[in-house]
Design brief:
Helix 4 links the parallel strand 2 and strand 3. Helix 3 packs across helix 6. The longest helix has about 30 residues. The protein is α/β, with parallel strands linked by helices. It folds into two domains: about 230 residues, Type I PLP-dependent aspartate aminotransferase-like (Major domain) (Aspartate Aminotransferase, domain 2, 3-Layer(aba) Sandwich), CATH 3.40.640; about 120 residues, Aspartate Aminotransferase, domain 1. The protein has ten helices and 15 strands.
Length: about 375
Amino acid sequence: MKHIPFQFFDREYAELRDELLQVCDRFFESGHYILGAQVEQFETRFAKSIGVSYAAGVANGTDAITLAIKALDIEPGSKIITSAVSAYATVVGITQAGCIPVLVDIDPATGLIDHKKIPSAITTKTKAILPVHLYGQMVNMKEITKIASSNDLKVIEDCAQSYGATYAGKPAGAWGDAGAFSFYPTKNLGGYGDGGLVSINDTDGAARLRSLRAYGQSTRYLHDHWGINSRLDEFQAAMLRIKMQYAIGWRNIRNEYASRYRVEIHSVIHLEQTPNATHSYHLYVVTHPQRDALQAHLSSHGITSLIHYPIPQHKQKAFTYHHGPLPNAERFCDSILSLPLSAQMTKDEVDYVIEVVNMFERS
């Protein structure tokens, strides 16, 4: 029996080891560990890679959401529309900014926010839409930006899972007024600890971001406004610059394997793909009415699978905000399962996952 983990960190490190260790030597010798040349160079490369004017590295993806909201001058108490299905960090990012999350139900075929349900959720207090590009698949951003423009709303993209994804040829993080990225180690572009980034085109907004992440400083020891301590470490920026060189190649391998899953696995329901889009396949998620039994079956054959996410936002005990009925989100979270998918998997391992998942249909 094969043993297939969900993550392949050891293989990824073996692939990059020599380059990473060389950069480590230069980093430690430099003696500069916070907001220096490594962060500046990474920010410049990242912004160029997605076609925006500016990028500001921050401590994590949750802070990226909070600081994007603050940089866009969205006042505390404002309502921000987002998806009922996401990592809870999405909601935390909104509430950290003093704003109120308003949840909209999903399209059960994709797991993405149902843009047709957004207009009815807009009130005079609504100031932004925060679409989540869940599992690495982009939301229909033409519809989102159209709704936002018609209602004078800001758009902040939650791109935590979608580096390398595109919609209509335009990358995640380049559609909205700002984009929030996470570099948590499991992400497609992941560091070796926490990290995040905000993408933005507005010059003044970029300046505010850089001040907000460093106590609200305009210059050292001069604090003009609200701010927090949320800085991307020089070490993480140095590591991420190396990994960025491989990110799109790894995305292409995941897409190749995902295409095989989609065509060759017959015992599950596959999520529909957004038309005119490139999926980054942060995760390969399927649904099955007997999800728990399927997960146990995979485990008995040495395959690790996970659930992203078992509890919709409004069912979390910490979520105390008013919400309407969200039946699609609830049914979706009860049936989803993430299969192993990594650029570091071998084709034999992909074959084995396909074989074992299909065995469940006959069991």
